[in-house]
Design a protein that fits this description.
With 346 residues, the protein is an alpha/beta fold. The chain has 13 helices and 17 strands.
Length: 346
């Protein structure tokens, strides 16, 4: 079959996903057209529907795909890339757009903080809830053959969990608390556990906590409201806040011991009511944490040290994206995937 000229994509429109048929995106030099194989629904996608970043394009940033076309490269490079199964870093920096000079953050090697960056499915760049997407070749990572699509679709969120390993020397922390029992919180707990940290995962959903225990992680059930501040007496030198809720920050401060480290992972639309005095009085180090190293995530999957497939609740066809994101918001549901049907062969 020949490559089609048009594709199905799901755009954010009035707090929902709307299916549209559109032309395939054009390519800049050294960019790739990628046919999406699987896409994952993230809590950030749900927050985008609620207004996060005021995004109005095609949503979705977690994916595994295969390279369908490349532009502006040698015939040797084209032969290498076509058909490769890839995951892609979601921040597109100055260099990919040909800006000269590049911004000060890119000069410092901080491409994920590029002043002119776009972000796949989040900021001014159409994402993975579509048959095809585009990314620069510099953002792509070839996925090993022993890593299945169902594992590979977790590379982006697993990399976000691995960012903690780059930001902190986890050898200094014999134990840690992870607040939240959702998808990212579970991946964080798994990564810390694999690194030798004694982890306790705090959450309010019994079924999700049971999943964590299957990975050898200790759990504790909480109510998820202000009463937890009075009931919980545990303190940790390292606390990771990944509840995805504005209320999680107060509990995280409460549970961080004096001169401990509080690492923030939650992103959500809206403000978080918070008192800053615990940070000052307890002299807490607060660390924001976002995207992370794909190479580390791929290595963990390739080695078999991490297998996130138990977090998959259900897979929908791409055409059912609206139903899928509604299902993803049901109580107790974990990772929901969108599968794209094959469209062409080389």
């Amino acid at each position: 079959m020949k490559k089609p000229h048009r594709m199905l994509a799901f755009r954010v429109s009035r707090n929902r996903l709307k299916g549209v048929t559109k032309s395939l995106p054009s390519l800049r030099p050294s960019w790739a057209l990628i046919r999406v194989r699987l896409a994952g629904i993230c809590n950030t996608d749900v927050e985008i529907l609620r207004g996060y970043h005021a995004f109005r394009g095609t949503a979705g940033h977690e994916f595994i795909g295969e390279v369908a076309e490349v532009a502006g490269v040698s015939s040797k490079a084209r032969k290498y890339w076509i058909g490769k199964r890839v995951a892609g870093e979601i921040n597109v920096a100055c260099s990919a757009y040909g800006y000269k000079p590049v911004c000060e953050f890119c000069k410092r090697g901080l491409k994920t903080h590029c002043a002119r960056r776009t972000v796949l499915g989040i900021v001014r760049h159409d994402g993975a809830f579509a048959e095809y997407l585009t990314l620069p070749l510099e953002n792509l990572h070839v996925v090993p053959t022993n890593v299945s699509d169902e594992k590979a679709v977790f590379i982006e969120p697993l990399a976000a969990a691995c960012q903690i390993l780059d930001q902190l020397d986890i050898r200094k922390f014999s134990s840690a608390a992870v607040l939240g029992d959702g998808k990212l919180a579970q991946l964080i707990a798994i990564v810390l556990h694999a690194g030798g940290v004694r982890v306790t995962l705090y959450g309010k959903h019994a079924s999700k906590l049971a999943l964590a225990r299957q990975s050898g992680i200790a759990t504790k059930k909480v109510r998820g409201d202000v009463s937890d501040l009075k009931r919980l007496k545990e303190n940790y030198r390292l606390v990771v806040e990944a509840t995805g809720s504005p209320t999680g920050l107060a509990l995280a401060q409460h549970m961080t011991e004096p001169r401990g480290t509080l690492l923030l992972k939650s992103t959500f639309h809206g403000a978080a009511p918070v008192e800053t005095w615990p940070i000052v009085v307890k002299e807490i180090t607060v660390v924001g944490s976002r995207c992370g190293p794909f190479a580390k995530a791929i290595s963990l999957l390739r080695s078999g040290k991490v297998d996130p497939t138990s977090l998959i609740s259900r897979t929908f066809a791409l055409g059912q994206a609206s139903q899928a994101i509604a299902y993803a918001q049901r109580r107790g549901v974990m990772k929901v995937l969108l599968r794209n049907r094959p469209r062409f062969q080389r």
